Amino acid sequence: MPAPTGILSDLDRVLLSAEEIHARVADMARQISADYAGQLITVVVLMDGALFFVADLLRQIDLPIRLVTLGASSYHGGTQSSGQVRLQWPSGVSFQGQHVLLLDDILDTGLTLAALHERLQAESPGSLRTGVLLSKKRPRASVCAIDYCGFEIEDEFVVGYGMDYQGRFRNLPCIGILKP
Ligand code: IMP
Ligand code: MG
After folding, report:
1. For residue 158, what pLDDT is reported?
2. Is 110 touching ligand 1 by the criterion CB < 6 Å?
3. Ligand 2 being an ion, which residues bring their Cβ within 5 A of it?
4. Would you call 10 a catalytic residue per the annotation?
5. Is the pLDDT of residue 77 over 70?
6. How many beta carbons lie within 10 A of that of residue 135, not counting itself?
7. Domains of the chain
8. Pairing state of beta strands 175-178 and 158-159?
9. Count of Cβ atoms closer than 10 Å to residue 2 Cβ
10. Which one of 36, 74, 78, 100 is most buried, counting C-beta atoms within 10 A?
11. Dihedral over Cα of 18, 170, 42, 129: its sign
12. Is 157 near ligand 1, meaning CB less than 6 Å away?
């Protein structure tokens, strides 16, 4: 095989190919479509990491969807969570009585999703579920139930398909591990 060029050449190895990701995202879309049949879903997306996942997922769901994006950060540029979650809450959006589906790219310490889950639960949604593309096999500092999970992966820092290292590598079509 020829040596990879471009941003792929910064990868030590590919963990999940674009094909594997797309097949699994299609499964998740089918399951979500069946579970929410006949309902309007309010999808709350954590930007920017979940951008590519959510774009691919939601385009395969044939149900009415209201999309709310928000920012949260706990990494502040490194490869380890700082343990502090900063939320940018959207103003003027009501979640009361809505069927809320909270989506993120990856579950690591679990702090981000747990913080948001708690914040959303306080808004009296009609229902609240969570989904992530990836979940790291590791002990969690905080937990909330995960209803939809794409893949379980080892506890390694990954990039691609939306996930970054210092703002780079989001546009990789696959998910991989960086060279040391
Ligand atoms: P948690 O709060 O520790 O679960 O972290 C979740 C957030 O950290 C995710 O929304 C990602 O943006 C980011 N994150 C966690 N692990 C990784 C990784 O391996 N690569 C890139 N971003 C990550
Ligand atoms: Mg994120």
Report:
1. 98
2. yes
3. 46, 49
4. no
5. no
6. 17
7. 19-153 (3.40.50.2020)
8. antiparallel
9. 4
10. 100
11. positive
12. yes
